[in-house]
Amino acid sequence: MAKIAGKDCSVDIGGSEIVGFASWSLNTNADAIDVTDFAGNGEKAFVAGCTEWNGSIEGSAGDQAADLFIGAGGLRPGATATLKLYVNATKFYTGSAIITSIVPTVGVADAVTWSVSFQGTGALTYPA
User: Fold this and answer.
1) Digits of tens for pLDDT over the chain (128 positions)?
2) Which CATH number characterizes residue 109's domain?
3) Is 1 contained in some domain?
4) What domain count does the chain have?
5) Contact (Cβ atoms closer than 8 angstroms) between residue 53 and residue 29
6) Pair 84, 110: CB distance under 8 Å
7) pTM of this prediction?
8) What are the backbone dihedrals phi and psi of residue 111, each rounded to the nearest 5 degrees, phi first?
9) Range of 66's domain?
10) In the sheet where 21-34 sits, what is the strand order?
């Protein structure tokens, strides 16, 4: 089976591919609800509960990120945007997410970097 190279991945926020992001992470979780009762003979039992997803995007995206996050009408923490997180040119996760934090990091001898955290709201669509 062929491996997937990270260099082929990308990020789309609100319908625009954001050039310069260098990494993204995605966490998908499900609650496990304890339904243990006396009939279980001391063995715990669980049923699947609600699911959630969240993650972050990081990199040295330049003017495009500055326009997106600090420009007039840009995204702010609390804003909702549609995200597409590509694992290659044709396969991607997509869903609506709330931007929970935006952290620009600036150093005089370094490129400006951005770290954006998000919390999914509603269903996450998985690559087919």
Assistant:
1) 778 888 888 999 988 888 888 899 999 999 999 999 999 888 999 999 999 999 999 988 777 777 887 777 778 999 999 999 999 888 999 999 999 999 989 999 988 888 999 999 999 999 87
2) 2.40.30
3) no
4) 1
5) yes
6) no
7) 0.87
8) -70, 145
9) 6-120
10) 16-17, 10-13, 80-86, 92-105, 113-120, 46-59, 21-34
